[in-house]
Amino acid sequence: MYRIKIILFFILAFSISNCYSQLLPLSKNATVTLITCGSGAEIYSLFGHTAIRIKDDEMHIDQVYNYGTFDFNTPNFYLKFVRGNLQYMASSNSFNDFMNEYQLDHRSVYEQVLNFSQQQKQQLFDDLNRALVSSERYYTYKFIDKNCTTMVLDILNKTLGQKVLVKTRDTDKTYREILFPYFVDHFYTNLGISIFFGRKVDLMGERIFLPSELHDSAAKAVYNGQPLVVENRAIIEFPPLKVPMSWWDNLYSLSLLMVLVVIANNNKIYVMFFFVFGLLGLFFSLAGFYSLHKELESNYNILLFNPLLLVLVYFYLKNNIKGSYIVSLLCLASLAVYGIIMAYKIHLFIVLPLIIASVTGLIKIALMNRKLLASVKQDGA
User: Fold this and answer.
1) What's the number of domains the chain is made of?
2) Of 230, 297, 309, 316, which sees the most CB atoms within 10 A?
3) What is the pTM (predicted TM-score) of this model?
4) Half-sphere exposure of 54 (CA within 13 A, CB side)
5) Residue 50 is part of which domain span?
6) The CATH number of the domain where 90 resides is what?
7) Residue 247 burial (CB count, 10 A)
8) Is it the case that residue 283 has pLDDT exceeding 80?
9) Residues 281, 283, 286, CA angle at the centre, nearest 5°?
10) In whole angstroms, what is the distance from residue 300 CA to residue 298 CA?
11) At what angle do helices 251-264 and 187-196 cross, to 10 degrees?
């Protein structure tokens, strides 16, 4: 019975959508606009948002379509997010409802009127409504390759019949370098993202994946010899969000913590320190294999957050002098390689306190165990 109800619901929804798009054709005065929303205070809204607005006063239509909807109540939400199989979906809201949220959050909203023919407007309108009641509504979210911006980009280029919207800025920067400024007031988020992402985000940012990038590309795009955007306007504009000064969410607090670890010069503190680093390295390693997110693969940050540190802790607790000495040298060698890799990376500065603390602790353990090994050899002689 439950399955029958679901089937009937989708049949009804599909019928309504077909009627809406076919029995109510858009008038010649209908407009298609690209909506770009500014950054928000929440982590998931830092990059802004992209949507499509279709307005037709004659047909009493003013709808906003976007591909950035997700459900926090999805079972195993965080596991699916890490795994890379979390489903996002297309949704539609009235323009007034859409704007209420951004006015409430004091986020700017900009609109670009697109130079679409009547046929293209109707095609886009039909495609968007059809997607809402079909499997096309859902897509598997990928941080760079498939998000609210790339989905809108693809459907607009599809409607235009060619790749009109292409990257026009920051093509000489890596994805990591492009993302970095968005976290300027969120140090620990920046640190977490920097160490969690692997080699893919160090590739050159050749594709559009952020709302502001699509906005700028649309402003410069030319279609059939004419500008694609016929009008740029701010629907609502607020000053940039000012993040309150935090006494702890900054590089200074991390540096102070690492200084305390070093000057404490306590073996128990170093054991705890390396245990945490080892666990993080193990997590990064497993995430790289487990996750479908390509951004998590080939994560060279495990040379800093080295799973071998767990072995070092084990040997230390077991008073295995030779094992502790060898593993500490291996970890130091890994850090040397890490330093070479990080030499020109934009996130070097924010992980530098962690590198210094790790090197200091490992050198101390290596020297201590070398001295003990020498002492054991003398006693044996």
Assistant:
1) 2
2) 309
3) 0.86
4) 26
5) 2-171+206-236
6) 3.90.1720
7) 7
8) yes
9) 110
10) 6
11) 70
